[in-house]
Each structure stands twice: as structure tokens, then as C-alpha cells.
């Protein structure tokens, strides 16, 4: 076990994947000498050469479309999108080509492309640098979408994403890049949890709290704070946003009867809606209360002075737990309770 | 250097020509050296190809009118651009086409029934790209130019000496993807041939709406040499494509070819060009027909045209009848065939 930061863990995972398969190439803006604006690819161009760690022209559709061509040729491109809010010029190539070519060609052409996206807020950035665009992609079949919440997962899941013959969007919670954690670099990938598997990170019995990416550590704090209030929270880290591993969610909700979902992304049409609907369909008779969503507001990501209000934090998630538990909460007055 | 210079001469001026609309063989310093080996029997082969694909195109159009195909994008008028370029390719060159390159697909050996699978609504693509080195036809305008460019990055990395060619229309040149592809191809000096069929129309929009300069004139701004050729002259197109492929395969990077041609039919069978196009324009272009000019040239060379036409017509009839029977005998898919027979999600877990 080595203690390393989240960012370093992704770097180590990329390095290992590149070591093991010469067809793995990295592409992106400023990922070479600079090592990326977040330094995630630090040192890789020096060690693997400019033909495998490619500083591309500044054009996201160009990067994604050439990655498609490389995949056609048998490569496994790993594309870095510099920030969440800059993925949109590549949206057409992702949705119309990356996601569909495998289906379009009846399985003949595979698209083993990994798209790394630093996402989410909390770093005091200007517009376009703090977004959570994951639902645009979970809505598109043909894509796998994952989000990592800790250095060990970051390390193993980047390798699993690269090894996958499916295209994978790999969402990295940029505000957690400097979080440290233990990473087993010798871990056998075949023994690691499947990339699609959700994981119960805190066990509990009163309410199920589902989240992913940057809010997993907040959710752990919520579980600790709630236990002081006598509420036992079970925290589930989704890890895979598409497809969703519903089994552990169902098992948990059958036990707790209550569900809270939290994410930074806006509420309308978000993952929380999908999870609430699916769990309601699957576990209706077990639910003691309506599922509760605690999310970013349905507004464009606000200027950074507002982000502490916009992002779900411990207080807002605790309030959501109170709602699910039928305890006094911020909406009680509105509901006349 | 001098060749580079002479290429530039062919960028914005009159299209380079070897066979005039009247079927006269004329000289071109730029193109002639690349078709020295082309004798009358080779030309007769190109003639056959053009007649056959026109017949395929006509048959498919009829099949659409008879309700056997949902839609068809005719290539009528663009035979020389497609045959001249496709016959310049080597087996391991990889083609990234749009939806209109059925003539190119035919040259690459795509099975006739596979040509119409998509247009009958049976499948999202007709063939396995790796069997014929032709990517699945692209409907998103311009997207395939980036795929060709990325594939070419792979070729360079692999140390391969083949090239990619990507086909797109005049309308596509306005798309960001085409421009981005040219940036990438130029910066990385990639073996890509950008083959633009300027057929003068993007559905109802004339080429003047896309560009105020000849399309080939854009490429030098990217650092990409360009050739503007008569796209109805199969020999000129063959020569230009050979120039571009030679440059690509010898490390000289991309070339942009503008083949100046004309879409004599509608955009697709669902289109009505009488709403936006002057009938005189069509008459003008009929006089520049790619097939009749080659017939005139061969005739002037003393070729027995009666025999050639009879042979070629017999072949075209046979191909058309195969296409028709392949089409009407294609069974409807079962509803559950919509689900892939392979796993869309292959990865562990
Ligand atoms: C991105 C995109 N926008 C719009 C369309 C609809 N569309 C299909 S063909 C076409 C015109 C294309 O013209 P051009 O590039 O000149 O090629 P041509 O059809 O003449 O061969 C349009 C607008 C499309 N397929 N893709």
C-alpha cells in the first residue's frame, strides 16, 4: 500500500495501462510537457514519448473525432477534456460516433475510448469550470459512465476503463484531486470490484444515502453527523452512473425504507430522478417515504461566491435526511407541519 | 519545389483537365506524369465502372420509387469523381465516406445487397468496414474527416505506408469538423487525402453560400496543398488522387482535392430540386457528362464502341438485376433483431 493523492493515483493508473498495452495513447490539450492543467498526466510524455502522449490542437471535436479514427485503427485512446464545461464541442462526436459506432456496425468496430473529465465545483472557478454534465451522457445508450470517489478506485477504475472495449466517460471530482488515500498498486485488476459495481461505503439501517464522485466523502461525514442525532445512514457510492448497479440500492432500501440521493448536478432530469423512479418501481412496497433529492439548483452554475449555497453540503444533505425520516426540516413550515 | 508551385496553380483557377467535355485529350503539366501508364484498356475499364455505377444508381432510384427502398442518395453526375479517385487507391488504403459514395464502395468490392441495406431500413450499416477498408457511411456532415485523420495518426504510429481518403461535399466544408480535421492533419503531417466533391449543391444551398472562394483555395491556409480538378474528368481525378496518395504515403502529409462536379439528380429521392434550381443549369452540366466525354475520347482513339457498349451494358444489366433481387429478397428483420446480438457493454461487470 502506498499513500498518494487522488490525482497521483490516476497518473499511476494511466502509467500502468500504458506500460501494459502499447496501443494506449493519451490525447488532450496541454497534457504533454505541462502534464495537464491539473498535472494528472505529469511525466508521462517524458517517459512514453510525444507519439503516445499527444498534445493536440485546441479543438475538442477534433480530439474526439481523431480518437474515433485511432480506435478504428485498433488503438485505445484516452482523451482528457480539460474541464467539464469544455466537453460540449465534442458532444456530437461522443453521442453520434463514440456511443453508436459499435451498434451501427453490428459489433464490427469497437470504440475502446476513455474520456477523462475533471468535473464538479468547489474550487472557486469562473463559469464553465465547475459543471456536472454527467446526465447528458447517462441518457445516451452505448456509453459507460463512471465517477470515482477515492484514490484506490481512481487507480483501478482508470485501468478498467481503458481495458474496456466500451467507450467510458470517467468523471474525476477535481476538488478531491489533492485528497490522499491508500492505494494498492499491486492490486490484481481481475480481483478488483467490477467497474460497474456500486459499493456500500458506510453501513446503516435507517436511511439509504446514494451519491457518487465528489459528494461521497461529504456523505460519509453526513453519516457520522447523523449518528450523533441517532439516525443510522447507509452510504452507497454508485461508482458506475451508467449502467447503474441497482441491486445493492434495492437491498439497502428494502432494509431502510428511505432513500436520499445527492449530486452536484441540477435536479431536473438528473441521475437522482432516474434513481428515485427506478427504486420506486422496484421497491414501492418497502418505501416509508417518498425518495428525496438533494442537488444543485436548476440554474446555470453560479459565480463562485454562491457555490457554497449551490452545492449540496453536510447541512443540506442532513436536511434531506430529516425529510426522508419525517423529522422537522427546512420544508416543514411550507408543508404546515 | 517546382511541383509544389505548379500544384498551387491548380488551386483557384480553372479546374485541371485531361479530357474536355467534348472528349478531347488535353495536356496538363501537373497531371500528365501521373497517368502515363493509362492506356485505352484501362480507360475502357473506367468507362465500364462509370456505366455500371450509374446503372446501380438508377436501379436503386427505381427501387425507391417502387417502395422497396425508403430513401436513396443519387450520385448521378458524380461518377468520374468517385471512380477516378477510388481506382487510384491501394487495397490497404482506408476510405471514410459520406452517404453518397456508393460508386467508391462498389469499387472497393462492397456486396451489392450490402449497399442498400441501410436505405431499405434493415440495418444501420451495410458492411464490415474491415473487410473492404471502407468505414461505414457517415450521415453527420463532415464527422468522417476527423475519423480519417485519426486513423492516419494510427498509420503513422504503426509505421504503415498506406493512407486514408475521406469524401465529403461542398456543404461539409463549412463544418467545424472538416476544418478541425485539416488543422490536425496539417499539424501532424498525416497521410490523409481530403476529397471534396463540389457538386454545387448542399440540398438546396448553392456552393456560394458555403464559400466565397473556390473550395480548394481554403486548404493552403491550413498549410495543405490543394488541387482543383475537373471532377467530371475521370482521368484528371485519377491523376490528382495519385498525386495526393503518393505525397501521403511518402511522408509529405495531407492534400486537399476539390473535384468540381455536379449533382444531376435530387439531393435524395425525397428532394425536389425544381424548387430551388434553374433547369438551364442542369442542361449546361449534361453537356459536361463524365461518361459521354470518355466515350467520345475512346471513339476518337478508334475503340470499337459498339462492342464496348454492348459488353458494358450486359455487365450493368447483370449488376442491376443482382441488386434488385438482393434488395427485394432481403427479409424484414425480426423485431428483436433491434437488440444487438453482441453485448453493447462488453467490459467486466
Ligand atoms: C450535422 C448535419 N447537419 C445537417 C444534416 C442534414 N443534411 C444531410 S445532407 C446535407 C447537405 C450536405 O451537402 P454536401 O456536404 O454538399 O454533400 P452532398 O449531399 O451534396 O453530397 C444536409 C444539410 C446532416 N446530415 N448532418
- Compressed to H and E, one letter per element, the order of chain B equals HHHEHHHHEHEEEHEHEHHH
Alpha-carbon Rg of chain B, integer: 20 Å
pLDDT below 50 for ≥5 consecutive residues: which ranges of chain A?
none
Radius of gyration of chain A: 20 Å
The share of residues in extended strands of chain A comes to 15-25%
The CATH architecture of the largest domain in chain A comes to: 3-Layer(aba) Sandwich
Main sheet record of chain A:
7 strands, mixed
Going by CATH, what is the homologous superfamily of the largest domain in chain A? Thiamin diphosphate (ThDP)-binding fold, Pyr/PP domains
Low-confidence stretches of chain B: 1-8
At CATH level 3, the topology of chain B is Rossmann fold
Q: How many helices of chain A does DSSP assign?
A: 12
- What do the pLDDT scores of chain A average to? 96
Count of DSSP H/I helices of chain B = 13
Q: What is the helix content of chain B?
A: 40-55%
Whole-number tally of structural domains of chain A: 2
Biggest interface and residues each: A-B, 55 and 43 residues
Fold and architecture overview:
The complex is a heterodimer of chains A (337) and B (349). Chain A has 2 domains: 2-188, Rossmann fold (3-Layer(aba) Sandwich), CATH 3.40.50; 199-325, Rossmann fold (3-Layer(aba) Sandwich), CATH 3.40.50. Helices cover 35% and strands 20% of the residues of chain A. Chain A contains 12 helices and 14 strands. Chain A has helices spanning 6-20, 44-48, 60-72, 91-98, 101-104, 134-138, 151-163, 215-228, 246-256, 271-283, 307-310, 314-325, and strands spanning 2-5, 24-28, 53-55, 76-80, 114-119, 144-147, 168-173, 180-183, 199-202, 207-211, 233-237, 240-242, 259-266, 292-296. A 7-stranded mixed β-sheet of chain A has the order 3-2-4-5-7-6-12, with helices on both faces. Chain A starts with a strand and ends in a 12-residue tail after the last helix. Chain B is globular, with a radius of gyration of 20 Å. Chain B contains 13 helices and 7 strands. Chain B has a single domain (32-338), classed as Thiamin diphosphate (ThDP)-binding fold, Pyr/PP domains (Rossmann fold, 3-Layer(aba) Sandwich), CATH 3.40.50. In chain B, strand 2 (164-169), helix 8 and strand 3 (192-198) form a beta-alpha-beta unit. With 349 residues, chain B is of the alpha/beta class. Classes of the chains: A alpha/beta (337), B alpha/beta (349). The interface between A and B is large, with 55 and 43 residues. Thiamine diphosphate (TPP) is lined by residues 100, 139-141, 168-172, 199, 201-203, 263, 267 of chain B.
Amino acid at each position: 500500500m502506498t499513500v498518494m493523492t487522488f490525482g497521483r493515483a490516476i497518473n499511476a493508473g494511466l502509467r500502468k495501462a500504458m506500460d501494459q498495452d502499447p496501443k494506449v495513447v493519451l490525447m488532450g490539450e496541454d497534457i504533454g510537457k505541462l502534464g495537464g492543467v491539473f498535472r494528472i498526466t505529469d511525466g508521462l510524455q517524458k517517459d512514453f514519448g510525444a507519439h503516445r502522449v499527444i498534445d493536440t490542437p485546441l479543438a475538442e471535436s477534433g480530439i474526439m473525432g481523431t480518437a474515433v479514427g485511432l480506435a478504428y485503427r485498433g488503438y485505445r485512446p484516452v482523451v482528457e477534456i480539460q474541464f467539464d464545461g469544455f466537453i460540449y464541442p465534442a458532444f456530437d462526436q461522443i453521442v453520434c460516433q463514440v456511443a453508436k459506432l459499435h451498434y451501427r456496425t453490428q459489433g464490427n468496430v469497437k470504440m475502446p475510448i476513455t474520456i477523462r473529465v475533471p468535473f464538479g465545483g468547489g474550487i472557486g472557478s469562473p463559469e464553465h469550470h465547475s459543471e456536472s454534465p454527467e446526465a447528458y451522457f447517462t441518457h445516451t445508450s452505448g456509453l459507460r459512465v463512471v465517477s470515482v470517489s477515492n484514490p484506490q478506485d481512481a487507480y483501478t477504475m482508470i485501468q478498467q476503463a481503458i481495458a474496456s472495449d466500451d467507450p467510458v466517460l470517467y468523471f474525476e471530482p477535481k476538488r478531491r484531486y489533492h485528497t490522499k488515500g491508500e492505494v494498492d498498486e499491486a492490486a490484481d485488476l481481475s480481483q478488483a470490484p467490477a467497474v460497474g459495481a456500486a459499493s456500500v461505503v458506510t453501513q446503516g439501517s435507517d436511511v439509504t444515502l446514494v451519491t457518487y464522485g465528489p459528494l461521497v466523502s461529504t456523505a460519509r461525514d453526513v453519516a457520522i453527523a447523523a449518528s450523533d442525532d441517532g439516525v443510522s445512514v447507509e452510504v452507497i457510492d454508485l461508482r458506475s452512473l451508467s449502467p447503474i448497479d441497482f441491486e445493492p440500492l434495492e437491498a439497502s432500501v428494502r432494509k431502510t425504507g428511505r432513500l436520499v440521493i445527492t449530486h452536484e448536478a441540477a435536479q431536473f432530469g438528473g441521475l437522482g430522478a432516474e434513481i428515485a423512479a427506478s427504486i420506486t418501481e422496484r421497491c414501492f412496497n418497502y418505501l416509508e417515504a417518498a425518495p428525496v433529492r438533494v442537488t444543485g439548483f436548476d440554474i446555470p452554475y453560479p459565480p463562485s461566491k454562491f457555490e457554497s449555497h449551490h452545492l449540496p453540503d453536510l447541512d443540506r444533505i442532513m436536511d434531506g435526511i430529516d425529510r426522508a425520516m419525517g423529522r422537522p426540516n427546512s420544508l416543514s413550515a411550507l408543508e404546515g407541519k | 519545389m517546382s511541383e509544389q508551385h505548379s500544384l498551387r496553380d491548380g488551386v483557384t483557377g480553372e479546374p485541371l483537365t485531361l479530357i474536355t467535355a467534348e472528349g478531347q485529350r488535353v495536356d496538363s503539366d501537373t497531371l500528365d506524369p501521373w497517368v502515363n501508364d493509362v492506356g485505352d484498356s484501362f480507360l475502357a475499364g473506367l468507362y465500364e465502372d462509370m456505366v455500371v455505377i450509374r446503372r446501380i444508381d438508377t436501379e436503386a432510384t427505381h427501387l425507391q420509387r417502387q417502395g422497396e427502398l425508403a430513401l436513396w442518395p443519387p450520385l448521378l453526375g458524380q461518377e468520374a469523381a468517385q471512380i477516378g479517385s477510388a481506382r487510384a487507391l491501394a487495397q490497404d488504403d482506408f476510405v471514410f465516406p459520406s452517404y453518397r459514395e456508393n460508386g467508391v464502395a462498389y469499387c472497393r468490392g462492397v456486396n451489392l445487397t450490402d449497399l442498400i441495406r441501410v436505405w431499405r431500413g434493415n440495418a444501420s450499416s451495410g458492411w464490415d468496414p474491415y473487410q473492404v477498408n471502407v468505414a461505414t457511411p457517415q450521415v453527420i456532415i463532415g464527422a468522417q474527416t476527423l475519423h480519417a485523420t485519426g486513423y492516419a495518426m494510427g498509420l503513422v504510429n504503426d509505421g504503415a505506408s498506406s493512407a486514408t481518403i475521406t469524401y465529403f461535399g461542398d456543404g461539409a466544408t463549412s463544418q467545424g469538423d472538416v476544418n478541425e480535421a485539416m488543422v490536425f492533419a496539417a499539424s501532424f503531417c498525416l497521410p490523409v487525402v481530403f476529397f471534396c466533391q463540389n457538386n454545387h449543391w448542399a440540398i438546396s444551398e448553392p456552393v456560394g453560400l458555403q464559400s466565397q472562394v473556390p473550395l480548394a483555395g481554403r486548404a493552403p491556409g491550413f498549410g495543405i496543398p490543394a488541387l482543383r480538378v475537373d471532377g467530371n474528368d475521370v482521368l484528371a481525378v485519377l491523376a490528382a488522387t495519385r498525386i495526393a496518395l503518393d505525397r501521403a504515403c511518402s511522408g509529405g502529409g495531407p492534400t486537399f482535392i476539390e473535384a468540381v462536379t455536379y449533382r444531376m439528380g435530387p439531393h435524395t429521392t425525397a428532394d425536389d430540386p425544381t424548387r430551388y434550381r434553374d433547369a438551364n443549369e442542369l442542361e449546361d452540366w449534361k453537356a459536361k457528362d463524365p461518361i459521354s466525354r470518355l466515350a467520345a475520347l475512346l471513339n476518337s482513339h478508334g475503340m470499337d464502341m459498339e462492342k464496348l457498349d454492348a459488353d458494358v451494358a450486359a455487365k450493368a444489366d447483370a449488376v442491376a438485376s443482382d441488386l434488385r433481387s438482393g434488395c427485394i429478397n432481403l427479409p424484414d428483420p425480426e423485431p428483436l433483431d433491434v437488440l444487438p446480438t453482441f453485448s453493447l457493454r462488453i467490459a467486466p461487470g
